Sequence to fold (86 residues):
Amino acid sequence: MVNDMNKHINEQTEIMNHPRDEVNEQVQRIDVLNLPPRKSVHDLQKKRVKIKLSRPFMRFISVTLFVLLIILTIMYLLYKDGFIFG
Fold:
């Protein structure tokens, strides 16, 4: 167990002692002077579709759905008991 721990510590030490030049060579270099303008990069991104709904319209939709839910519940209860269609 001590040998395994020593191996692990030695591996970590080797990793830490790598010259920074090797690490820097692995990182891709970006030429900052040849980048496209910011506007052209961000214009290419897809924009989310925004739907702007007014509060009165949202209130109307909410009330309509609530009333529809009540009507459907009442119809279900009446249909289940046999008062409608049966």
Remarks:
- Residues 44 and 69 are 43 Å apart (CA to CA).
